[in-house]
Amino acid sequence: MANVPDTIDPIDVEAEADNRRSGDRRKAPYQPGDTSFGPERRNQGDRRRSPFQQWPRVVLGGLPIAVVDREQSAKAMVDEALRRRGLWRYPAYLTSANGEVTYRCATNDAERELFMQADAIHADGMPHVFASRVRCDEALPERVATTDLFYDVAAEAEARGATMYMLGATEQANAAAAAKVMERFPKLKLVGRRHGFFDSTDDEIAACNEIAALSPDILWVSMGVPYEQQFVIRNRQRLTSVGVIKTSGGLFDWLTETKPRAPQWMQNLGLEWLWRIWLEPRRLGWRYLKTNPYALFLLLTRSR
């Protein structure tokens, strides 16, 4: 049997602990296609609890919605993205819910699961705010519309040196949106952009490897529901050098400013959907007429 000392010097123990804490052993440079850590490690989330999961939540329409405002969200997204640099873990995944999402998640279990895997779900609809005031013990402070949140995050990222990547929409819309963003935030580190269409699985994997090699702190994915959520879940293990992913629906189309936002009074009353029907009646008219009544029913009956 090996000799075991009768006592252990506490100074030696503390010195060893200091050595272990001196560097984050989980940090490693990202190499596209590198599987040296094994699939079981690549598929793990960050062992430390995500700050997004610490936000209080209320149930609205059957979905857990984060009780947080835009300013808090923007700061937390940049904080967490910068903290995760080099940790080589699943990126944090944030998404949003509006009336259509509430309807889809209630009628499609597979889509609901895509949302339930998110670190946090924002309320991107005033009806959610109104319902929280009536049905929940804690009301949402405000609507966290992705179109507005993007500008908050971009300003925070520009001030603090966080990098971003824009993935999604058509090539024309993506390029125009990126140009508008750089015009408004000239010092922002936009490390790359790409349209959201893939010719094949190999093309999608190649795009993910390109994004991973650039290691953006924040990745915006604008493909629409449920394609953007499916993309995130399908490719998280390929994007472990990314800090935070935020799904963003038709954000890039709005960033181009070719489509006007609804007047502020309509946004405040939760009538932006009506404005969008007016802009695109053929594409959105039947969709909203089908989903909105049921979403309202869900907000009134499945909220607490």
Tell me the layout of helices and strands.
Elements: H1 10-21, H2 39-42, E1 57-60, E2 63-66, H3 70-83, E3 92-97, H4 99-107, H5 109-116, E4 120-123, H6 126-135, H7 146-160, E5 163-168, H8 171-184, E6 189-194, H9 201-214, E7 218-222, H10 227-235, E8 244-247, H11 251-255, H12 264-268, H13 272-279, H14 281-301
Helix pairs in contact: 3-7, 4-5, 4-14, 13-14
Describe the structure using short key phrases.
304 residues; alpha/beta; six-stranded parallel sheet; two-stranded antiparallel sheet; 14 helices; globular
Structural overview:
- There is one protein chain.
- The protein is an alpha/beta fold.
- The protein is 49% helix and 13% strand.
- The protein has 14 helices and 8 strands.
- Strand 7 (218-222), helix 10 and strand 8 (244-247) form a beta-alpha-beta unit.
- Mean pLDDT is 86; it is low at 1-30 and 32-45.
